[in-house]
Design brief:
The protein has 12 helices and 11 strands. By secondary structure, the chain is of the alpha/beta class. The chain is globular and about 80 Å long.
Length: about 400
Amino acid sequence: MTDSLLGRDTVLSHCGRHPAAHSGTVNTPVYRASTILFPTLAALDAKEGARLRYGRRGTPSTHALEDAICALESADRALAMPSGVSAISVVLMTYAEPGAHFLVVDSSYGPTRKFCNQLLQKFGVETTYYDPTKGAEIEALIRPETKLIWMESPGSQTFEVQDVAAITAVARRHGVTTAIDNTWSGGYFFQPLKLGVDISIQAGTKYISGHSDLMLGTLACTEASYEALRETYLRFGLCVGADDAFLALRGLRTMAVRMQQHNASGLEIGHWLKDQPEVLQVMHPGLPSDPYHALFAKQFSGSSGLFGFVIAETDRTNLAKMFDGFTLFGMGSSWGGYESLMTPSNPAVYRSASTWNPGGQTVRIHVGLEDPKDLMNEIRAGFDRLQPAIA
C-alpha cells in the first residue's frame, strides 16, 4: 500500500503484506525455497516472465520485503541484499567501466571509499572525492566521463548535511546518475528520491532491522535505474534468506515508534552534551545550533539516534577509563538497534578533499531506546572518570 493519502506510519503497518494471498496470515510467511516447480511445459517455457522462477531470484518473502522498501523510500523498484556493503558494491559496479569517473563525497562510509580505491581502480575507474559542503558547485567537477555522483547525508562520523536537491539538479542536466547512502534516516525521516536522487541505499542491518540481529542491505531506485542494477545483482549471485526477509519485515512494523523515540532521545542527549564542560563540539544536524541545521530542516522530517561529539584530547589509556566503565553503552560496530553504543573514532583517516581536525577526540554515539536520563547519568559518570586525566 503506497497511497500518498496515507500517513507514513500507516503505510509501514501495511506495506509488503497481503493476508488474502497467504491464507489470511497477518505477516507474510517464511518461504524457504530454491526450486520452483511449473505445472506445464508451457508455463516452464514462459518462466522468463514469471516473478517466481528460482529461489535466488526471489521468493514471496523477499518480494514482500522489496515491496515494503518501495513504500518506505517512495521508490519505483527495490532490491534486497545480504548486507549494506553488498548494496553499495552493486551500485558502484553497475556504473563501473574502464575510463569512467565517479564523484564520491569525502565524508562517505569507510567501506565505500575502500571499494573505490582498491577494487574500482583495478577496473580503470577514477574516483574524485569532493567536499561534503559542495552543492551546485559540484558542477565544476563533472567531466564528460562522469558516470555517478555518490552522496551520504549526513556524512559518516562527522554528520555534514549535503544539499541533495542542488546536486541532483546539476547531475540531471549532465545526464549523471546519483546515488545516496540513506542509512542514517532509515528511509523514515528522509526520502531522497523525492529530491531527484536515482538510487537510495541502506544498510538494513541498522534501523530497518532495529534489533542488532540481522545482516541486510536495501536498494531503492527509479524505474529507469532498476534493470541495470538488477542485472549486476543477478550476476553477483546475491540473494537474501527468507528468515532474514521475515525479520526485516517484522522490524519495519515497529519502525515508526522506534524512530520517533531515537529522535526524541537523541535530541535530548545532544542538547545535554552541549552543556557539558568536557565536550568541545556536538555534531548533530537536528540541533538548532548545528551549522547544517537549516539545510537539514528543509530535507528531513526528523533525526535518528546516531551523531557525534568531541571531547578534549586524551590518550587511549585515559579513554579506557571512560569507556571501560560503561554498562548501558556498548562498544562495537554497527548501530540502529534498540541498544545504545559509543565508540571513539578518527574520521581524519578517511578524508582527502576536506579536513577533520576538531582539536580533540571524536566520539560516535548511538542513542538507543533506554531512558535518556539513565544514559546521561552514565555519560556523566564516564566524564567524571576522565577528569583527573584532563584537568
